């Protein structure tokens, strides 16, 4: 029986094996649209295979961002990807859930008027910080104008350890950034040094509940007390904004006696990242004001959108409601007890890991996880390898840890930071310890190995 002839145009429909398709033996355009379409499975496989080259998020101890959620949360997110949360008239229940989250956080942070205050969701803490900074500038400008004083030279006081979003805010909104430098043994802001930088043009002082450099909390209460004395003496009314990007979802649960939030009278606004220790996939952030009067009405826009009047004061407009839904899922699913157990487990593993690394010999801790579940370490002495070399060696096993230099005054200090999140187990901690031991053994037997310096661009970490 003769073989049936097959037209070449039928090949793709008859070849059922995924990688037998002609699509996989021809180059795919990377920087322009292809001329024709391809089957959905082929497009998926092409992209899926490229993403294999990314790092394993489970082993990524560089990021604060949530890398695991329950299947039910994922399902809710998938069901709401198509909802534009800014369209509150069309999606009133999503809008109501956002409002519930705002009041839940206001209550969690001891807001005096938790059920009547104002706040909003954002794409993350960077946007939330921008909004809080704008509110401080507008309030300062109003006070100065009422006194007949100039409003052209605002400044903002903060530690040099702030996240880069505050540098962006000052540059974008034309504000002088005044920074308190680090000192050996002090890696956060000093209230006394911060007060020295304040004057009548200071729109506010930033306190960080969880520095990204070391994971340490800044002394917010001492900062408040110092400002109380200064404001009483000068009548300047300089407020505090607490950048609690990570600590806002940690301190209320595992350090409940720490006073850092709206219990302090000069704390006028707080931000936090739902996609960090709020345990939601990126990206969602939150900003809450102490009182409605702390958010100037000039910053709130009423938009006639799709048939309804809608107040808005976010920098972004359209964005999905899925992360907000996922945040509310976590609030209902976990409650205070659930959050407490998860965060305490992260801290326990963090302190266990820090203690093991401290005992290895060549390392010295800068922080050990008693604040955020984050710790940092440096070398005790110069050896034939640097921390850049160590983190590069650990990449062979898939571990992603950042090595970086500290800012001004301590630029010669190189540290490694490890962030412990939900999903990182004690077993994984032991595997990391074993791989560090193997790396140390490797360098020990490489007597001619030359340490990588901080100034050669290798292994650098951009904060």
Question: Major sheet, described briefly?
Answer: 7 strands, mixed
- What's the SSE pattern? HHHHEHEHEHEHEHEEEEHEEHEEH
Q: Which fold name fills CATH's third level, the topology of the domain at 74-331?
A: Aspartate Aminotransferase, domain 2
Based on Cα principal axes, name the global outline. Answer: globular
Cα radius of gyration in angstroms: 26 Å
Number of H- or I-type helical stretches: 12
Major β-sheet strand ordering: 1-7-6-5-4-2-3
Give unreliable regions as ranges.
454-463
Question: In angstroms, what separates the terminal alpha carbons?
Answer: 71 Å
Average pLDDT figure: 90
Helical fraction equals 25-40%
CATH-level-4 superfamily name of the domain at 74-331:
Type I PLP-dependent aspartate aminotransferase-like (Major domain)
Tell me the fraction of residues in β-strands, as a range.
Answer: 5-15%
The gist of it:
This protein has 463 residues and is α/β, with parallel strands linked by helices.
What features would you highlight for this structure?
single chain; 463 residues; alpha/beta; MYOD Basic-Helix-Loop-Helix Domain, subunit B; Aspartate Aminotransferase, domain 2; seven-stranded mixed beta sheet; four-stranded antiparallel beta sheet; 35% helix; globular; disordered C terminus
């Amino acid at each position: 029986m003769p073989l049936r002839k097959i037209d070449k145009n039928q090949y793709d429909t008859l070849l059922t094996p995924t990688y037998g398709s002609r699509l996989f033996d021809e180059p795919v355009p990377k920087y322009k649209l292809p001329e024709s379409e391809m089957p959905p499975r082929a497009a998926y496989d092409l992209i899926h295979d490229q993403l294999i080259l990314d790092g394993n998020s489970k082993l990524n101890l560089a990021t604060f961002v949530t890398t695991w959620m329950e299947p039910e949360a994922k399902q809710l997110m998938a069901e709401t990807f198509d909802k534009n949360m800014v369209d509150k008239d069309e999606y009133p229940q999503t809008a109501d859930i956002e409002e519930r989250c705002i009041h839940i956080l206001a209550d969690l942070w001891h807001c005096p008027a938790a059920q009547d205050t104002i706040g909003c969701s954002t794409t993350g803490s960077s946007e939330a910080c921008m909004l809080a900074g704008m509110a401080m500038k507008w309030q300062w400008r109003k006070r100065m104008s009422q006194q007949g004083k100039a409003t052209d030279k605002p400044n903002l006081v903060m530690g040099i350890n702030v996240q880069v979003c505050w540098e962006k805010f000052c540059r974008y909104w034309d504000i002088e950034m005044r920074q308190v430098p680090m000192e050996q043994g002090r890696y956060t802001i000093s209230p006394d040094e911060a007060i020295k930088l304040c004057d009548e043009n200071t729109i506010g002082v930033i306190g960080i509940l969880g520095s990204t450099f070391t994971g340490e909390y800044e002394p917010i209460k001492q900062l408040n007390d110092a400002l109380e004395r200064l404001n009483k003496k000068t009548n300047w009314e300089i407020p505090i904004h607490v950048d609690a990007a990570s600590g806002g979802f940690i301190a209320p649960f595992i350090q409940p006696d720490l006073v850092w939030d709206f219990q302090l009278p000069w704390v006028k606004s707080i931000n936090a990242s739902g996609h960090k220790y709020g345990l939601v996939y990126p990206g969602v952030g939150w900003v809450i004001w102490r009182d409605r009067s702390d958010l100037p009405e000039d910053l709130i826009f009423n938009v006639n959108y799709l048939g309804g009047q809608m107040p808005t004061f976010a920098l972004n407009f359209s964005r999905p409601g899925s992360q907000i839904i996922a945040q509310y899922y976590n609030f209902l699913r976990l409650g205070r007890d659930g959050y407490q157990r998860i965060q305490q487990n992260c801290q326990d593993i963090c302190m266990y890991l820090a203690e093991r690394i401290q005992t290895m010999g060549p390392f010295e801790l800068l922080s050990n996880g008693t604040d955020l579940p984050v710790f940092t370490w440096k070398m005790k002495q110069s050896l034939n390898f640097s921390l850049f070399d160590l983190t590069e060696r650990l990449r062979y096993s898939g571990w992603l840890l950042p090595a970086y230099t500290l800012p001004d005054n301590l630029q010669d200090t190189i540290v490694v930071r490890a962030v412990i999140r939900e999903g990182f187990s004690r077993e994984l901690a032991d595997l990391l310890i074993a791989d560090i031991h193997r790396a140390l053994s490797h360098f020990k037997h490489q007597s001619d190995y030359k340490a990588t310096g901080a100034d050669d661009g290798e292994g650098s970490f951009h904060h």
